[in-house]
From TrEMBL:
GO BP annotations, alphabetical order: response to arsenic-containing substance
Keywords, sorted A to Z: Arsenical resistance
Organism in which the protein naturally occurs: Ottowia beijingensis
Domain of life: Bacteria
Phosphotyrosine protein phosphatase I domain mapped to chain residues: 6-144
Listed name of the protein: Arsenate reductase ArsC
Amino acid sequence: MTHQPLNVLFLCTHNSARSILAEALLNHIGGTRFKAYSAGSQPGTAPKPLALEVLKHAGVDTDGLRSKSWDDFAGEASPKMDLVITVCDNAAGETCPYWPGQPATAHWGYPDPSDVQGTPEQQREAFRHTMLAIKRRLELLIALPPEKLARTMLQDSARALAQAG
């Protein structure tokens, strides 16, 4: 019996750093159980170069990563999401579009590594730190038993992970 992957959409205002990191990481470590996407309310022109750099350095594929509007996922023809996770406080406070299928929602806030001032190495370290924090929480999501990922439990499970890591 084949199981459909759990579709997860990560949201951040500009879809250029945290949501991009989360999308790439979950697609890298989630196996066939998960399919990740990312989007933003005001997408930038491209992912932040440091986000792509730390992903590549960690051995994560960055091909095809791009900034996308959350409107791309709000239409009836869009992939149906099972879980929508905001990864920045700004996006969590915005009025989101209607998501077809009424997916579970959660907020996993992370500081914006793009806000870090300092040397190029300090900025790179901020992106690496954020990537590792996201990865720890994603590993907890992946480790959940199937019954915790069932539609009836998914929202509670995802929201509980906001307290982890």
